[in-house]
Design a protein that fits this description.
Distance between the termini: 49 Å
Strand order of the largest sheet: 1-5-6-11-10-9-7-8
Helix content: 25-40%
Largest sheet: 8 strands, mixed
Number of strands: 14
Order of helices and strands: HEEHEEHEEHEHHHHHHEEEEHEHEHE
Oligomer: single chain
Radius of gyration: 26 Å
């Protein structure tokens, strides 16, 4: 029989209690996004391969062809389709979009990660500057808090700072690749072996440290001479100022070694973590050059949060309460039972109607097995 009765690797069925809990979280996110002025869009679960090929490695996409032989892929994220959608419309900026959709990523499993998962997020298109960056970062933090992730730590960095610093130090592409790997691994030994001055080594070592906010920036700022790198640090300070006014600064730390895809992100970048999960539950940043793929010049910043990983975290943190469906079951005389159930439902009370003709004992046993608290057995007009 093979595996036809099992889900493919990296894909799971959702049990009723988890599914209901997840829907509640989705509702909370939708409400937050709506209150923040972000209109929900829905993009296809299938895109042309060309939409993603510049941004995602081919082996990470689920690819297939349509009846005409055109190469397609499943939706990998919500950002690229949102930019495609925006680029094809002739509307004034800024545009604010939100989404909550299923994403599909090949080979992205393990440690709570799945190939198929649900992701929510927002995209602010046609808006630049620290105020826009801070708005997205603030909503990202509020999103995690809204769904119950209270033990949250968000690391924030700046791609332009790193590019400017590399230019200041005169590091070639080969050296930059080594430095990027060393910073990611907090590998101070590799940095010490670089053929640069001791002062420059000390500057790079600072990129392997994180945990502060303003003091992290102030410690490295006197060492920076590149104008773009200085401007990037100023951008981070302004973002911190605004996040502080929102009373959310306690969740944020500056990590100047946070270097995401240098071909994708163009400014602020951030990742959000919580304990009991070894991956970021959310990530975002500024990506001003992405729309060029679709023939437009659109400044943009956004973020996404994995509801699937967030639920895994909440379960491991003992913050998960399975959603309950109907907590009343009504049986016995079918005419009386059906009338009672309809009355309960009209009042807004979920109720189950026994359509199998169980006896009262059988109905009570069934209710106990299913965790249903209330049994109503209708017998000749008596409850």
């Amino acid at each position: 029989m093979g595996n036809k009765f099992y889900t493919p690797d990296g894909f799971n069925d959702q049990l009723p209690g988890i599914c209901g809990f997840k829907r509640n979280l989705e509702s909370k996110l939708r409400n937050l996004f709506l209150l923040s002025g972000y209109d929900e869009i829905e993009t296809p679960g299938v895109e042309y391969f060309d939409v993603y090929k510049k941004f995602v490695r081919e082996e990470e996409l689920y690819k297939f062809t349509d009846s005409k032989g055109r190469l397609l892929c499943n939706r990998y994220d919500g950002t690229i389709p949102a930019v495609r959608f925006c680029a094809g419309r002739n509307e004034s900026f800024p545009q604010r979009y939100s989404y909550i959709e299923n994403m599909y990523r090949a080979g992205k499993t393990g440690g709570g990660k799945l190939s198929g998962f649900t992701q929510g997020g927002i995209e602010l298109l046609g808006a630049s500057g620290a105020k826009s960056d801070a708005e997205v970062l603030a909503i990202a933090i509020k999103s995690a808090l809204e769904i119950g992730i209270t033990d949250l730590q968000v690391s924030i960095g700046q791609v332009k700072f790193y590019k400017g610093l590399m230019r200041q130090l005169g590091i070639d592409e080969e050296g930059q690749a080594k430095i990027k790997t060393a910073i990611a691994n907090m590998d101070s030994v590799t940095i010490e072996k670089l053929n640069i001055s001791e002062e420059d080594k000390e500057t790079l070592q600072l990129l392997t440290e994180s945990g502060g906010t303003y003091e992290t920036i102030d410690r490295i700022l006197p060492r920076i001479t590149d104008s773009e790198a200085k401007e990037a640090l100023g951008n981070l300070k302004e973002i911190l100022d605004i996040i502080g006014r929102y009373d959310l600064l306690k969740y944020v730390s500056v990590d100047l070694g946070l270097i995401e895809s240098l071909d994708y992100y163009t400014g602020m970048v951030f990742k959000g973590y919580t304990y009991e999960v070894g991956f970021p539950i959310m990530a975002g940043g500024r990506y001003d050059s992405v729309a060029e793929t679709f023939g437009r010049d659109i400044e943009a910043v956004g973020f996404s949060i994995s509801l699937t990983l967030s639920i895994t975290a909440l379960m491991r943190q003992d913050k998960f309460v399975p959603a309950k469906g109907a907590n009343i079951i009504v049986g016995g005389d079918f005419e009386l039972a059906s009338a009672t159930v309809e009355s309960l439902r009209q009042e807004g009370t979920p109720a189950i109607l026994d359509t199998t003709g169980m006896s009262q004992d059988a109905l009570e046993k069934y209710a106990e097995e299913k965790g249903i608290d209330t049994v109503m057995f209708m017998d000749g007009g008596d409850a």
